Fold:
Amino acid sequence: MIKQILFPFDFSAQGLQAVPFVRALATEFRASVTVLSVVPLNLAVMPAGMDGDVAGWTRALQSRLDQALTTELDGVSVKRITNAGDPASCITEVAHNQGVDLIMMPTHGLGLFRSLLVGSATSKVLHDAKCPVWTAAHAEQQQTGSLPKIILCAVDARPESGALLKWAADFSTRVGAALKVLHVIRPMTDWPSLEPEGGLEEHVRQAAHAKIVSLQAAAGVQAPLRVAIGDIAATVTEHAREEDADLILIGRGSLQSPLGRLRTHAYGIIQRSRCPVLSV
Structure:
């Protein structure tokens, strides 16, 4: 499933904390890793004495990168490259051109392309990348960087979610993790007035449960299922905490998708999650 991993690295503490996760997956899947650093074309952030010298800074960064993570990724096949340009665009371009199977990146940092790791630039990578994207927990300190033991797969009710369930099941089996499935229904403000005793809510919940069970059966996936009602991002991340999940797996796609579909909430889930998120 995963043969090539792209790891954008900015030498920040957050980037360093993501390295054990990269090593764990690369080792398990016997995947090669491309470590990418980017010189942002923003003269305001260039070091003193190198103003405007993009080529010089790129050479200096490549020299530094060549010496980086040699111990941390010992035993892993590693290629180190440096590009100059918009960091998010550089990441997606490298991923597409090299046929990368997985991008792994922190969600914020203090390094050379810190603008990549927060806000709209992260959204751009999530939106434009054609391959799955792993993002570290949006926190100052990461959990132990090892293979996940409990994976929570949050799905919507679209037929395409069957493919996500199959991917999640295959991935969970490969890494030796327990898989749990969650479907969240957004609350409807007029439910109480329409059905004071909650009968309508329960009817909708049961119908959704039956639909996800059908998707699981069609995909050949057996995993515990829970259907919850609430804000999608908040409910997914809270349930992950309750289950002690160390990876959330979600579907991802165009931000212009109709409201209510899980993939439109990918960024909100990533921002709230205390564990890494793998969006497929």
Observations:
- The first helix runs from residue 13 to 29.
- The domain at 150-279 is CATH 3.40.50.620 (Rossmann fold).
- Residues 157 and 212 are 6 Å apart (CA to CA).
